[in-house]
Amino acid sequence: MKRVGILTSGGDCQGLNATIRAVGKTLYNHYGADNLEIIGIIDGYRGLIYGEYRRMKPDDFSGILTMGGTILGTSRQPFKLMRVVDENSVDKVESMKKNYKKLNLDCLVILGGNGTQKTANLLREEGLNVVSLPKTIDNDLWGTDKTFGFQSAVDIATNVIDCIHSTATSHGRVFIIEVMGHKVGWLTLYAGIAGGADIILIPEIPYDIDKVVKTIKARTERGKNFSILAVAEGAISKELAALPKKKKKAVIAEMKYPSISYKIADEIESATGQETRVTVPGHFQRGGSPDPYDRVLSTRFGVAAAQLIIDKDYGKMIAMRNNKVVAVPLEEIAGKLKTVPVDCEEIATARKIGISFGD
Ligand code: F6P
N or C: which end of the chain has fewer CB within 10 A? Predict the structure, then answer.
């Protein structure tokens, strides 16, 4: 009997169920329902720590391709606290190892983003057989060109920018659409280009508010009565970026605005006199059905992960490189963030058609 555990961890995204489905279907097709037991771990690593799980049946992997969220539930279990004994005096790592052994697992399939991959690597170091899959709307996982969830979130954020475009034009307003991404700007960059934003602000390129204002004024002079800004949650001004880490954190914590977009809006309105509004789609970007691209990507990834299990080729994360699905050793990718290179082709392209990055 082959026994495989599966969990989803960290912030959810589109394509989690599509990936779970592909893993389950491939394994059942290979081993047959009588020779395989899949254990669904509830709410990510928390379920593994506290021994919360359910035995799954082949039917659980049907009818979930288009379903948003995760049928297993998820939770955030910060990597930096993994070695810290929790409020119930539980040693998390020891407890996860104990439950893995108690369930008699041959392997654990882990779907998650950056923090999740770090813990997956930790479990590998602790001797567990793990196979992981890259999920996140942020597309910030090192070692893979694409994560599932990203394209669906780009679609949603682009749709928001499209809708805002028409109302911005009618009213002659400046609009900021705040796109998810605290540390990296992939989602903002792609949605910004796709939505025809005039200005894109991402964490990797600190902005100068005077340059932002100059771009808006230049548009007004050219007879454009509106401007659209795609601003990442983690967009940062040049002055703030220049501060030491601790001081920077303190300044952000003391900011009187709900988020950076509102501060930028205030500054634009004072400098231009033009009405400036903010739209924050927030978790809307992570919800609902995966788009066709993500359904295909999730299926390709899930099938490849199942193949690693069949081959007993553990300790790896499935990744996409040059449109080929590959497996990369967890120790190569864990703990590395894939930020937007400031000299990447997408940014150069955007600049060539006149999109400003506020620098
Ligand atoms: O990592 C995915 C993500 O959606 C980020 O883009 C966003 O900044 C963050 O999670 C939001 O986290 P939470 O769901 O915990 O509010």
Answer: N
